[in-house]
Amino acid sequence: MSAQIINAVLLGGYYAVLATGLAFMFSVMNIINLAHGSLIILSAYGLYIAGHMLGIPLALAVPLVCAVMFGLGCLLYRGVLARASAGSELLPLLATFGLAIILDNLLFQVFGADTLSLAPLVGDLSWASVELPGDIWVGQLSVYILIAAVAVIGVLEVILRRTALGHRIQAVSQDRATAALLGIDTGRTAAIATGLALAVGVIAAAALGLRSAWGPYAGAAQLLFAFEAIVIGGAGSLWRVLAGAMLLAFAQSAGAAVHPQGFLIGGHLAFLVAVFWRLQAWRDRLSALGSARTAA
Amino acid sequence: MTPSPVLRAEGLSMAFGAFKVLDRVSLDVFGGEIVGILGPNGAGKTTFMNLLTGAYRPTTGRVHVLGEDVTHLATADRCRRGIARTHQVPRPFGGMTVFENVLVAARNGRGDPSGDPVGLAWQVLEHTGLAGVANRKAGSLGLLDRKRLELSRALATGPRVVLLDEIGGGLTDAEADRLVALIRDIQRDGVTIVWIEHIMRLLTECCTRMICMAGGAVIADGLPGDVIDAPAVRTAYFGAAA
């Protein structure tokens, strides 16, 4: 039992890494980036090229690909998202959905359908494990991924709350017109924020590639887990993403305990419960507002 | 030689589709003035302000700041040239503290970014009386303090001219008086002020000059007393000739 709990916590760490970039972009720009999963897969191929083909050690490849994806994120904002978000709310959703399809098929064209992994790059780390008291075995890599998740969220929170850039990002996310009135270059700020979100995706790509394997169409599944973690956790601080990711992992583990095929269903159920619970809370607030108005 | 204006609007027009909101409005504002703008709802006052800050592009006309044509500059660049504005309904960044709200303006909005933005932000907060609540979340402030915060952020950008959009609305008389005293202070420090207001008393107490807008045009321009007594203003603003 305690082994399952520990493993769920560690799996939650992976989902948190997966979800952080998506949550960051949503909270900063109100854009649900449906290409989030595909961009992570693109980063994974980037790490694969750097590691396997160019022979760059992973510890160097990650910051390198981070830098590339940061630049790509800035371009993505300037080229696509800025135009899309000037239109209706639906437009960024459609634009990123289209981008996901293009990316997936492009990756298939270039890399074929082969399933790849980064595990060979790190020797035996991907299966090394340590024994905890009580005959519990914990994968080393999962622990590192959880630590990475906490570190990534911590760093992003510090950037947002403590730095000049973070204050600019907060200002732009809360009220773009007023931010511009105070001299903030809103386009540049949003481009940097998109770059940051994509750079965080590289950490997720490394986690994905080390703990398992991927193919060109693996993006959709990653997007789904990330999305579910965020909805379960709720908007606000990025730490809620971590909590949501943990809950998702717990629900999946509980599902798997009930039935061997219950893993995904458990997660989806938790997601649906969260959606309906939010909806109900929202309705209650609306009706409370309504009755307050009638009373007045 | 006549002094050159701090802010010049030259034949500004704005049309949304076939609906003309503003029709060739020209205005020169000189250093040290407090120019009050009054006019009935729909006169085009707020649109005029939005054209000055660059929130909208005018259909025709130009905007100059200190002799420089800023018509094609984005809002952020105009801010750094010296135009600041406050909103009728204050729009603080609620998730940030009062201090951070002002700091973000001091860091990004000044044309001459030399000097310490942190020190400047504190100085502004001391001046506007918000230093005591500097570390509170901006979303938790009451209305008067929210209006002070709007003003503080505008001041932190080191403006040459501040555009005030109905800053007195919703305040009690005593609160409005405190705000007026602050605005006078700001003007004495060398900042020019253009002020849209529905509360006539505040304008007549403060303004060095008043203009009245109606139907998207300036219909009177002069000393406050003269403008209020002008027959065209009486008709447009107070309804039928009083």
From TrEMBL, chain A:
| Name of this protein | Branched-chain amino acid ABC transporter permease
PANTHER family documented for this protein: AMINO ACID ABC TRANSPORTER PERMEASE PROTEIN (PTHR11795:SF445), BRANCHED-CHAIN AMINO ACID TRANSPORT SYSTEM PERMEASE PROTEIN LIVH (PTHR11795)
| One of the GO biological process terms | amino acid transport
Top-rank taxon, per record? Bacteria
Which family is annotated? Belongs to the binding-protein-dependent transport system permease family. LivHM subfamily.
Q: Where in the cell is it found?
A: Cell membrane
Single GO cellular component term: plasma membrane
Q: Which GO terms describe its molecular function?
A: transmembrane transporter activity
List the membrane topology term(s): Multi-pass membrane protein
Q: Which residues form a coiled coil?
A: none
Listed transmembrane segments: 6-24, 31-50, 56-78, 90-111, 141-160, 190-210, 230-250, 262-279
Alphabetized UniProt keyword annotations: Amino-acid transport, Cell membrane, Membrane, Transmembrane, Transmembrane helix, Transport
Q: What is the lineage of its organism?
A: Bacteria, Pseudomonadati, Pseudomonadota, Alphaproteobacteria, Rhodobacterales
Q: Which source organism? A: Pseudooceanicola pacificus
